[in-house]
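Example for tutorial group B:
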């Protein structure tokens, strides 16, 4: 399928020819074809269900309504039929029950659950359920959420952004016959942005207890990649497993920005190189370029602003000048002068 191709398919066991064991078999076959090998248990001899699938090469959005069922993704089924994607589960009417060892978490309308499809889990519901399932490739979550080593169910409670993302996905279902592949993929990407923010708690207040770990990851990444010409908050967030907005929020609470961190790290690297005999043969402009500055004049201005001496002065023995400048800044700060 072309990356922008878009199609809709589904199954409806209310149609003639679906009855009894045939309805059960058709529903099981459909579920396993879309999601991976499932075990599906029904409570009666007959079963009524209707489902639609909207799909491109990237995303699949499955909407369904049905009678009572209990669905299990078991280890042996995973081994026989691995899929690799994640699924976002949303009840639209009634409640879903999900869990790892059994359906022990209740999802009410507005709640969501994110689960890796290749980990065992249970899903159960009563008659009259209406729900949505969004099938997400893992690379579309990396950089939005910390999913490294994710095994179980992640519950996203009924918060503001969770409801906004739910409404967007519902709109995609309602407008399914009036969308192109490009429009469908673009809207799902926006919904995932909102889900990630809701999961990280950014629509309320991100947990401060996790700030230290995020800051440590940011510092390590900046040290290792400060000289990358294509460095960005997005690439850094993707590498350390958080959404860009969350990383920015943590940095803001610490009184800094990613741009400032990168500039400081580049300036410190430049200071070390300008004072090293190993770089004595390189010009100041070459040193500036080697640490990621594109403009020698901008580098000189930033260096002098940060260290109090120009790069050329420092190279002529400015270590003492830097120390003097630092002491002067402390004295001025203590005396109230700027």
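The residue assignment follows.
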């Amino acid at each position: 399928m072309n990356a922008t191709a878009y199609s809709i398919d589904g199954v409806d066991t209310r149609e003639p020819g679906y009855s009894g064991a045939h309805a059960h078999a058709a529903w099981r076959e459909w579920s396993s074809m879309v999601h991976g090998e499932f075990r599906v248990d029904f409570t009666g001899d007959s079963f009524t269900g209707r489902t639609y699938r909207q799909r491109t090469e990237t995303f699949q959005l499955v909407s369904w309504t049905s009678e009572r069922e209990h669905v299990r993704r078991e280890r042996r089924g995973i081994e026989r039929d691995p899929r690799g994607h994640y699924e976002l589960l949303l009840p639209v009417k009634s409640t879903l029950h999900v869990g790892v060892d059994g359906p022990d978490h209740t999802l009410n309308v507005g709640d969501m659950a994110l689960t890796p499809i290749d980990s065992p889990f249970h899903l159960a519901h009563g008659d009259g359920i209406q729900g949505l399932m969004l099938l997400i490739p893992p690379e579309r979550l990396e950089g939005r959420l910390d999913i490294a080593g994710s095994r179980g169910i992640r519950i996203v409670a009924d918060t503001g952004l969770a409801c906004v993302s739910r409404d967007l996905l519902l709109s995609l279902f309602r407008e399914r016959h009036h969308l192109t592949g490009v429009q469908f993929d673009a809207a799902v990407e926006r919904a995932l942005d909102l889900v990630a923010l809701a999961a990280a708690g950014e629509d309320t207040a991100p947990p401060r207890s996790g700030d230290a770990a995020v800051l440590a990851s940011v510092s390590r990444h900046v040290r290792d990649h400060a000289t990358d010409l294509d460095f960005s908050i997005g690439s850094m967030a993707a590498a350390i497993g958080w959404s860009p907005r969350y990383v920015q929020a943590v940095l803001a609470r610490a009184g800094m920005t990613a741009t400032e961190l990168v500039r400081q790290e580049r300036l410190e690297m430049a200071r070390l190189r300008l004072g090293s005999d190993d770089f004595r043969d390189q010009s100041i402009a070459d040193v500036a370029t080697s640490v990621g500055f594109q403009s020698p004049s901008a580098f000189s201005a930033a260096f002098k602003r940060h260290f109090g001496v120009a790069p050329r002065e420092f190279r002529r023995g400015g270590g003492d000048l830097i120390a003097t400048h630092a002491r002067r800044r402390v004295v001025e700060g203590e005396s109230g002068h700027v």
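The CA atoms of residues 285 and 296 lie 5 Å apart. Compare this with the pattern of hydrophobic and polar residues in the output above.
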